[in-house]
Amino acid sequence: MQENYQDRIIALLKEKGETNASLAIGIHKGKATVGRYLSKSSNRTYPSIEEISEIAAYLGVQPHWLAFGIGDKYTDDATINKMSTSGAVTVNVYSRADVAKFIETGEAPIVTQMPVHKEFGDCFGVVYPAQGSISHTWDCAALILQDKNWVNDDIVLARIGNNPTPDFFTLVKVSDTIHVWYGEDTTKNPIHSITEDEIEVLGIVCWGTWAKRR
């Protein structure tokens, strides 16, 4: 079990508005026991795998991620095992606000990691803006493929005009005009009709929740 399992638990408690006391109640342990689980001093005790599984279930995440940092919070073990046998790797996932910094400097805060097939090992992920009631529950991510030309109906990660923060758009080029839709919804009128000089495509969504190509 990775030493930084404690950091993942602490971050989850903060994220979900929980405390050591509420976690203790939720997993039927004493508050002092949970305190020793999360302590980094000499009096620390290590939870068993079974206890880590109980903590993960209470906090709504996958135990393999909580214990070992494998995959992401919500990828189940069957998916991890299947991908492991086929030569999976993990890639970092960034927020849209930080991905430009990552592309420019190679360094940025990592939101999470996700397992992908080894052919996508050079890619990176970006948190995708899920719509509707699931947006506050799921960490939806799109895997971004760089150095490949986009084709009509691709979802891309791009910057338009002077906006420094990239976003997800669907593009369709007709003659010299690129018609732009936000995200994947092309049922409405395009939000922009621009030229190639007005858009900077950072990458193509090649795998993920809203995959356009694999």
UniProtKB/TrEMBL annotation:
UniProt-recorded Gene Ontology molecular function terms: DNA binding
Stretches of the chain forming a coiled coil according to its record: none
InterPro entries: Cro/C1-type_HTH, Lambda_DNA-bd_dom_sf
Segments forming domain HTH cro/C1-type: 9-66
Listed name of the protein: Transcriptional regulator
Organism: Vibrio panuliri
